[in-house]
Design goal:
Structural class of chain B: mainly beta
Shape of chain A: globular
Strand content of chain A: over 45%
Number of strands of chain A: 12
Radius of gyration of chain B: 13 Å
Largest sheet of chain A: 7 strands, mixed
Oligomer: heterodimer
Radius of gyration of chain A: 14 Å
Order of helices and strands of chain B: EEEEEEEEEEE
Number of strands of chain B: 11
Helix content of chain A: under 10%
Distance between the termini of chain B: 31 Å
Chain lengths: 113, 114
């Protein structure tokens, strides 16, 4: 079955870059997503990348995809204390016309002053 | 804010009881998915409804069931509650046919089973 792995914790200083890594096993994944979850809240979609892309940049966020190694990363430039949250990687193969994501366990990002 | 609402916010039940959780989709969305998020884990897919029909199911027993109504709101029902059912239950709606099928999550219902 599908499996998505992430490191559990990352601690950075405010203003530094954060890099959150993810590996997945399903080679048929069509879309890969990054979600953010703040305490007591649901998931917020940050960005996604289509599997035929290598990189996607969206303001402070850069997503890199290495399809050969099934490795996905999220770089947050100039990390702020408001970026402290849990970040989930998810892969989504096409299935019957919809894309049902499989989530990793999440990486808890702690940003300290 | 995604426009997806869930009720109740918190719920406490005892083993063996039944529970119904509700979700109101974002306007214009005809697909709703339900997820279970245990403490310290990522969301696990329970099932998805599209135009009132179940359209995919994860590895959950039949005591987890759902409904989608003509206005695309949805219910998740869990019978014979077990302690391990304690979790955050997330609903997500999406406008099927959009590419990708981006899901918009509600804030969740925190269920505690004693």
């Amino acid at each position: 079955g599908e499996d998505v792995e992430q490191s559990l914790f990352l601690s950075v200083r405010e203003g530094d870059s954060s890099v959150i890594n993810c590996t997945y096993t399903d080679s048929s994944s069509t879309y890969l997503y990054w979600y953010k979850q703040e305490p007591g809240a649901g998931l917020q979609l940050l960005t996604y990348i289509f599997s035929n892309m290598d990189m996607k940049q969206d303001q402070r966020l850069t997503v890199l995809l290495n399809k050969k190694d099934k490795h996905l990363s999220l770089r947050i430039a100039d990390t702020q204390t408001g970026d402290s949250a849990i970040y989930f990687c998810a892969d989504a193969p096409a299935s019957g016309g919809s894309y049902i994501p499989t989530f990793g366990r999440g990486t808890s990002l702690i940003v300290h002053p | 804010e995604t426009g997806v609402t869930q009720s109740p916010t918190h719920l406490i039940k005892t083993r063996g009881q039944q529970v119904t959780l509700r979700c109101s989709s974002q306007s214009g969305h005809n697909t709703v998915s339900w997820y279970q998020q245990a403490l310290g884990q990522g969301p696990q897919f329970i099932f998805q409804y599209y135009r009132e029909e179940e359209n995919g199911r994860g590895n959950f027993p039949p005591r987890f069931s759902g409904l989608q109504f003509p206005n695309y709101s949805s219910e998740l029902n869990v019978n014979a509650l077990e302690l391990d059912d304690s979790a955050l239950y997330l609903c997500a709606s999406s406008p099927r046919g959009e590419n990708p099928d981006t899901q918009y999550f509600g804030p969740g219902t925190r269920l505690t089973v004693l």
